[in-house]
Known about the structure:
The structure is a single chain. This protein is an all-alpha fold. The protein has a single domain (3-229), classed as Orthogonal Bundle (Arp2/3 complex 21 kDa subunit ARPC3), CATH 1.10.1760. 80% of the residues lie in helices and 0% in strands. Helix 2 (33-43) crosses helix 4.
Amino acid sequence: MRKAQAVSLTAVFAALHVVLYFVSFGLWRNWAIYIESVEGIVLGPEIGFFAALIGSATARMIRPDIFWMFGIIAEPVSVLMAGLLAKAKWKPVLVAYAVMLSAYFINPFGRALPLWTILDILFALILIYPTAKFSRNLFGDNVKRLTIAMILISFVCTATDSLVRVFLLVPCGLYTLFPNVFEGFTGLYLIFVGAAVDSYIEDFLVVIASFLVGVPLLISIFKLRRNNKQ
């Protein structure tokens, strides 16, 4: 990717992050999750990470959120993981999952919270290697392979967003910064369970959006790249 093109795409996706943050409504994460996988695939892990970081930070500076630290960290990391998987690099993603999940289960609260609340994250862990394998030659002409890879990357990317937030909330103990919100383990339990239900709904919505919008968008971008090279 040429430097000028990288800068312009970084600005575009950072702006999209800001816009999606402001139009978000409904579930517990903002609508930037719908472009995280595309961002990682198109920009790559490094540039995608910085684009998401700039966008998420800018959005929260304009409209502050008491939970700002969760999104600012979770969104760029999710894009980073999507970019790595798009390049068929599964080992760094697996290591990141292993570290965060180990910290979660070592924590007493992590062991006490219901296992079903993180089943999507555990499923994503299993899918890391197959996703990386399906993503080989992602920029080829095989539309069926691209569709499967896009769906898998999107799911793992969304689960990563959840995992980072869970990691920050429980093992890192950020819930203690909001005593009026979580009110000890009982309050944490109730909010965590409710957020898990929302998270499963979002997993489904992201996969559908990736199939209906993400795949055609990537095909258009790849065709544009080929035309520019000719």
